[in-house]
Amino acid sequence: MTAANALTYGGKNSRITNNKVDVRVQKQQGGFFLDVSFTAENAGITALFGPSGAGKTSVVNMVAGLSRPDRGRITIGNRCCFDGEKGIHLLPEKRRIGYVFQEARLFPHLTVRANLTFGMNRLKPSDRFVGLDPVVSLLGIESLLTRRPARLSGGEKQRVAVGRALLCSQIYCSWTNLWLPWTRHAHTNCSRSSGP
User: Fold this and answer.
1) Three-state DSSP class for residue 82
2) Which pLDDT tens digit goes with each residue over 19-57?
3) How many C-beta atoms surround the C-beta of residue 89 within 10 A?
4) Which domains occur in the chain, in start order?
5) What is the pTM (predicted TM-score) of this model?
């Protein structure tokens, strides 16, 4: 299974027709001035690169709605999420962005399976873009489903947190500083194919 197949599983429910992300923002943070402008035209992975302290997490937080730019505009698909001139600032929960924090923030009293399905179970089936089995397979976490977070490594917790974000059927997922072991695992899975 490829990553594209896993994430479009249940494609009959997918209403993503425009996945363009356009970010043009400025923010003063103490003595640091952030001036960012980029457009991601198509589905896939967009990465922000830069040294520590360059503002990568600040940009992700602004796109997700967790931090407000001083000025600029953020458009996701056909939806304007922030426009400083027009006074538009959509709340994070209205942006349909899954966010995986540097620390996984899993529910310690729930199993991996229950953590994965926590948000998904609160959606109507018609609003789900992806099912549990394809995400579990994509992330290689089949053997972890009955464990609790205390019995997971840091990388395993990260993969579960990514899975939970995907299963909440957000249109975009954002994360910062994913651990290299997870990145290697995802690359391996993304390059597999089940078809000719």
Assistant:
1) strand
2) 788 899 999 988 889 999 988 876 556 677 777 778 888
3) 15
4) 3-15+99-190 (3.40.50.300), 21-95 (no CATH)
5) 0.57
H-run or E-run covering 73? strand 71-76
The three-state DSSP-derived secondary structure of 3-43 is: HHHHHCCCHHHCCCCCCCEEEEEEEEECCEEEEEEEEECCC
- pLDDT at site 195: 32
> Would you say how long the chain is, in residues?
196
Residues pairing with 64 in the sheet: none
Helix, strand counts (H, E) of the chain: 6, 7
| Mean pLDDT across 185-195 | 32
- Tens digits of residue pLDDT in 171-188: 555 555 444 333 433 333
> Which helix H or strand E contains 117, and what residues bound it?
helix 112-117
Give the Cα separation of 34 and 29 in Å (integer).
8
The first and second tokens of residue 89, run together, are 């600032």
Query: What are the residues facing 72 on neighbouring strands?
Result: 25
